[in-house]
TrEMBL record:
Its main location: membrane. This is Sec-independent protein translocase protein TatC. Part of the twin-arginine translocation (Tat) system that transports large folded proteins containing a characteristic twin-arginine motif in their signal peptide across membranes. Together with TatB, TatC is part of a receptor directly interacting with Tat signal peptides. The keyword Protein biosynthesis does not apply. Keywords: Cell membrane, Membrane, Protein transport, Translocation, Transmembrane, Transmembrane helix, Transport. The Tat system comprises two distinct complexes: a TatABC complex, containing multiple copies of TatA, TatB and TatC subunits, and a separate TatA complex, containing only TatA subunits. Substrates initially bind to the TatABC complex, which probably triggers association of the separate TatA complex to form the active translocon. It is found in: Cell membrane; Membrane. Belongs to the TatC family. The lineage of its organism: Bacteria, Bacillati, Actinomycetota, Actinomycetes, Micrococcales. The chain crosses the membrane at residues 14-32, 73-92, 104-126, 149-174, 186-203, 209-232. The gene is tatC. It is a multi-pass membrane protein.
Amino acid sequence: MPLREHLRELRRRTVLIALGLVVGAVAGWLLYEPVFDLLQQPILDAAERRGPRVSLNFQGIATAFDVQVKVSLFLGVLLTAPWWMYQLWAFITPGLTSKERRYAVGFLAAGVPLFFAGAALAWWAVPNAVHLFIDFAPDSTTNFVDAQLYLGFVMRVVLAFGLGFLLPVVMVALNFAGLVRARTWLAAWRWAVLVAFVFAAIATPTPDVVTMLAVAIPICLLFFAALGVCLLHDRGIDRSLVAQGLPRLDGTMADDGPDRTTGTAPGAA
């Protein structure tokens, strides 16, 4: 596909993603109140322990409206996750055959649960972070938590964890599209582990090691699981190419082995 066609395809997929997010945001607007109650629950739990000195605060006149818009967009991203994941897959793999495009089912079947698993893990870590940070406030003070800053923090953490858990699916998608070979991922495994721990250290809102390990270790395990899938995929393609007398993906030819009629290697005296 030429560059111009790629740009057109990118524009088309971007528009489709945007339309899906708009539909999801409308649904998120309707679900705002119960979701807002859920998001502010860590603050309410902290208020039960410390009394009325802890409260969520809307500072400006239009702050409540801004918060509802942001939460609706956040819900739109979550609710339309299968839609925008499919559009990303369709953009990455436009040259696949009709048979290979069936991998989209597997891509979504793995990507959607992983995305929500990462989001759920983030939500597990957020209440601990809220309790930790609020406890730093002296007992004689009042902690009015800015609603925009708090909800923005929670939404960024949830989305960051969800996208982080999509890394293995992106690896497999790039490999199946023929853009990155498994040996490339294998050569970078040390960097992948380092990046996973750095990401966990930055993304986890609490400074304790247990929470960081709870995030980094699953990401590392998912990376190696995706690496195994990529290795099996490349091996299957190499076998198919060798059977057709073609060079492997890395450009090397298969060893012909011993001659079946004489039992000697090709070219032997």
